[in-house]
Specification:
This protein is α/β, with parallel strands linked by helices. It folds into 2 domains: 156 residues, VC0802-like (2-Layer Sandwich); 157 residues, Vaccinia Virus protein VP39 (Rossmann fold), CATH 3.40.50.150. Helices cover 27% and strands 24% of the residues. Strands 5-6-4-7-10-9-8 form a 7-stranded mixed sheet. Strands 13-12-11-14-15-17-16 form a 7-stranded mixed sheet, covered by helices on one side. Strand 12, helix 8 and strand 13 form a beta-alpha-beta unit. The longest helix has 19 residues. The relative contact order is 0.11. It comes from Granulicatella elegans ATCC 700633.
Length: 411
């Protein structure tokens, strides 16, 4: 009986990177393995790579992405478990093209019928950087035409493809004349966990919020505080991490509706993820905001995320925070000058932060802002800072490490 593996890997001189190899066993098992890519915001791809390695995958991290291989189960697992990635995509083809004819012919040469059924809906998005084929709309149109041509021939020369079935989002990405064709298994971006019913102005994406927490020295046994919590995204992501709740547990994915995909894969992973939730943990998480209406929204979002019992939300001005707790972690995404407030207003907040948090010697503070002069207004030089992108906004993550106070050893 045949063991069939469709494995995506680069083949020099081939039109794409999709190939098939046969092995034989006593009983028939069909397992498809792909070259996969987890995309990420600039600056947090290393976190995605770390998450993949923790899950047991060997990966290669590049700017904004991490490559790895896996089957249907692995696609389901990474979609459900990864906290900082944007999307999980199948790398279906890769080749060099400097003309539209080359783009058309090499796209057409790929076995699209092995992935796309006759009624597949397959919109084509695109991007092109430093390439001869710089017109993205033209590239999208040509890729679409090439796929239609291939499928028409494969499906008894049909002159019309209805596109009324499941969604198979395709992207043509061209970098320095190298074309990469991918199929998005996630559908909507992974930052859409499904718990945020409402949000305030300039909201932080859930996967970026998770990244901010993961870049700290916080552990579930430490106090955690967000003084500018807005709709509660950072405290909720901290609670999900502390309770080991997989972020994609309560949402759906494009690949679940694909005809070639193992229908049991996502259900299997969800069952495994539910068993891994920690019920023996008590978290000390506080989210505060000056806006009472945002606090109410945060409470509702926490309820939907299933973590409301582990987070206290409180309407409070930043300067009013006082605590006797030690070894805590503070994470803040305050309004910055190009985001909701004027530059002067934002800098007044930074000065308040410096004055309010100065007594918290054992606390580590992590503050995200696009104001590169933040330290000047805060009144202290950061232990470390890291460049991140909050959407299209270039920011720095200023880190002020606390002096850890150790508990006395009992005699």
């Amino acid at each position: 009986m045949a063991y069939r593996s469709l494995h995506s890997g680069y083949l020099p001189g081939s039109p794409g990177i999709f190939f098939e190899k046969q092995n034989f066993h006593r009983k028939e098992i069909i397992m498809t393995t792909y070259k996969l890519v987890a995309t990420a915001a600039a600056g947090i791809e290393a976190l995605v790579g770390k998450e993949l390695r923790t899950l047991g995958y060997d990966c290669q991290v590049e700017n904004g992405k991490a490559y790895f291989t896996g089957n249907d189960y692995d696609i389901a697992k990474t979609n459900i478990y990864l906290r900082t990635a944007d999307r999980i995509k199948i790398v279906f083809g890769q080749f060099t093209a400097k003309t539209f004819d080359a783009l058309f012919e090499q796209t057409k040469a790929l076995p699209w019928e092995q992935i796309l059924p006759v009624d597949a809906e397959f919109p084509v998005s695109g991007k092109s950087v430093k390439s001869t084929l710089h017109s993205v709309p033209n590239c999208q149109s040509i890729v679409k035409k090439a796929i239609v041509n291939r499928l028409s021939a494969a499906y008894a020369r049909r002159t019309h493809l209805p596109e009324t079935g499941a969604l198979y989002p395709i992207e043509v990405s061209i970098l320095k004349d190298v074309v990469t064709l991918t199929i998005d298994t996630s559908g909507t971006s992974l930052f859409k966990r499904g718990y945020r019913t409402e949000k305030g102005g300039a909201p932080l994406k859930e996967n970026m919020a998770a990244a901010l927490v993961m870049l700290t020295n916080w552990f579930p046994d430490k106090p955690f505080y967000d003084p500018c919590c807005g709709s509660g995204t950072i405290p909720i992501e901290a609670a999900l991490i502390g309770l080991n709740i997989a972020p994609g547990l309560n949402r759906s994915f494009a690949a679940e509706k694909w005809t070639f995909f193992d229908p049991k894969a996502f259900d299997t992973v969800r069952q495994e993820a539910r068993k891994e939730i920690r019920t023996d943990v008590t978290l000390d998480i506080l989210g505060a905001d000056i806006d009472g209406s945002m606090i109410e929204i945060a409470k509702q979002n926490a309820i939907k995320a299933g973590v409301s019992e582990h987070i206290e939300f409180k309407q409070m001005q930043l300067k009013d925070f006082r605590t006797k707790k030690e070894n805590g972690v503070l994470v803040a995404n305050p309004p910055y000058g190009d985001r909701l407030l004027s530059e002067e207003q934002a800098q007044n907040i930074y000065r308040q932060m410096g004055q309010t948090y100065e007594p918290l010697e054992t606390w580590s503070k992590y503050i995200l802002t696009s104001d590169l002069s933040f330290e000047e207004h805060y009144g202290k030089q950061a232990t470390k800072k890291r460049k991140l992108y909050n959407g299209a906004i270039r920011t720095d993550y200023f880190q002020f490490w606390g002096v850890r106070k150790r508990k006395p050893v009992s005699e």
